[in-house]
Predict the 3D structure of the following.
Amino acid sequence: MPVVRGKAIEVLFSASAIARRNLELAKEIASRDHQDLLVIAILKGSFVFAADLVRAMHDAGLAPEVEFITISSYGSGTTSGELRVLRDIDSDPKGRDVLLIDDILESGKTLKYARDLMLSRGANSVSVATLLDKRMRRKSAIDADFVGFDCPDHFVVGYGMDVGHAFRELPFVGIVTGDA
Ligand code: IMP
Ligand code: MG
């Protein structure tokens, strides 16, 4: 088991499994009809997934524009409170097909907020790609159009995802099991 910061991490999705899945996702995305595709990565957690997915999308023949939005909940910790935009996109989504990319879809509050925001700005369509889906945790009426993996009901880290700002750099997704 990898040990990082003195903690043993159980690997849930390996770097190679994620890379393979990203190529499949990109092909699924490319098989849909998009006009003037605008990809929006929801920071911070999606930064690694988005970086890999947009390059896989290029390999699948797509040429999107890429933007970033930072959405944060007022509350701290691992649950989502009230949401707000900390840093907005620079482009206008009006009339465009938007693809939101997030690391993990849990309660759905974050992605529903982002989707409603882009629709209110006149996006032609808004679809959602998430690396991980914790369906059992859903509270808002939203589903992803493209899902990397169904995620067990554990707090996961790595591949962009953190606990207390740590572990984002891991090339895999894992569970912190305890002191090594
Ligand atoms: P939602 O609004 O409840 O769907 O929250 C989703 C966001 O919470 C994700 O984009 C992550 O940033 C964060 N999150 C949810 N579950 C986890 C987890 O297991 N590990 C790390 N971050 C998580
Ligand atoms: Mg996130």
Q: What stands out?
A: The helical segments are 15-30, 47-59, 109-120.
